[in-house]
């Protein structure tokens, strides 16, 4: 389990370093915000249209909405979706929890392994409630939901706890966090560890921030995941049409996690994307967007 924490904490460099990334379209799209309890949540809406299917996107660990990048959003627009993109709490223009401080990871890990509660300023349930606050503020009764990695976990919580607000679920490179599932590969751990050492550290952080990831928030997001723990039983209650997508070369959350997620949800479809790791580089966008579009269109077909 210690290896899982280290690898998750470092892995966001992999998508952050890709050259096929632009955020100009994002940066020219205005941000709106709403309150979720005492937390302010920022969001953007793209491609508004009364007849456009509504799609909520939820980013992973440490990621603000801009981490999706222009190409992915514009690809979804081409398919006719109206897209709601949130800044997860503790990222972007949403409320930051800097005053809470950073958790001591080894101590929190030990508590988790002993079956004790970990210290966290929020959990995945709170982050799911943030999405509901955005939907309320923007006037959406029901949306299709897609999340990647930690965002996939939040999307699963939404589908389980707020079924009346979710038309369909797409969970990508994510997990139920069941303890029997395999950890990151040893090679992934070694590669990721080397990226955080020496001269690479400063350029690593700059690349992450430019890509829309917030290093100071990652440990708190990790604690949200660990404080929520194994969600297998909750995932088993999901009754919404579900598509689970996973990369065959994901070294961080191995494909078995995706298989297990799909097995818990009656009627869920599992698709293994050959050659994809724990990221969404542009060369995979047509395949991912095509799978999502087909899935959502099937929900709306008579």
List the helices and strands and how they pair.
Elements: H1 2-11, H2 13-16, H3 24-27, E1 32-36, E2 39-46, E3 54-58, H4 70-78, E4 82-86, H5 105-113, H6 124-138, E5 143-148, H7 150-161, E6 166-172, H8 186-195, H9 200-210, H10 215-228, H11 232-235, E7 242-247, H12 255-264, E8 269-273, H13 285-300
Parallel strand pairs: 3-4, 3-5, 5-6, 6-7, 7-8
Antiparallel strand pairs: 1-2, 2-4
Helix pairs in contact: 1-8, 4-13, 6-7
List keywords for this structure.
single chain; 302 residues; alpha/beta; Rossmann fold; 13 helices; 8 strands; 42% helix; globular; disordered N terminus
CATH class: Alpha Beta
Q: Which descriptor suits the 3D outline?
A: globular
Tell me the β content: 15-25%
Largest sheet, strands/sense/barrel: 8 strands, mixed
Structural class estimated from helices and strands: alpha/beta
């Amino acid at each position: 389990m210690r290896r899982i924490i280290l690898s998750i904490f470092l892995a966001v460099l992999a998508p952050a370093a890709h050259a096929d990334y632009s955020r100009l379209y994002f940066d020219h799209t205005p941000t709106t915000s709403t309150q979720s309890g005492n937390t302010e949540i920022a969001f953007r809406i793209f491609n508004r249209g009364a007849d456009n299917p509504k799609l909520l996107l939820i980013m992973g660990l440490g990621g603000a909405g801009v981490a999706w990048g222009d190409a992915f959003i514009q690809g979804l627009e081409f398919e006719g979706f109206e897209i709601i993109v949130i800044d997860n709490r503790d990222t972007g223009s949403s409320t930051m929890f800097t005053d809470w401080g950073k958790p001591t990871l080894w101590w929190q890990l030990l508590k988790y392994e002993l079956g004790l509660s970990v210290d966290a300023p929020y959990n995945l349930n709170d982050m799911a409630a943030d999405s509901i606050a955005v939907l309320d503020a923007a006037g959406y009764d029901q949306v299709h939901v897609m999340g990647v990695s930690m965002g996939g976990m939040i999307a699963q919580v939404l589908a389980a706890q707020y079924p009346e607000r979710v038309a369909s679920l797409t969970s990508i490179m994510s997990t139920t966090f069941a303890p029997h599932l395999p950890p990151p590969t040893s090679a992934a751990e070694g590669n990721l560890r080397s990226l955080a050492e020496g001269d690479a550290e400063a350029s690593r952080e700059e690349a992450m921030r430019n890509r829309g990831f917030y290093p100071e928030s990652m440990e708190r997001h990790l604690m949200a995941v660990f404080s929520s723990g194994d969600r297998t039983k909750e995932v088993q209650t999901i009754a919404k049409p579900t598509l689970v997508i996973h990369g065959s070369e994901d070294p961080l959350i191995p494909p078995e996690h995706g298989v297990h997620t799909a097995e818990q949800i009656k009627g869920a479809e599992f698709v293994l994307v050959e050659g994809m790791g724990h990221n969404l580089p542009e060369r995979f966008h047509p395949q991912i967007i095509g799978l999502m579009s087909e899935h959502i269109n099937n929900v709306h077909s008579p």
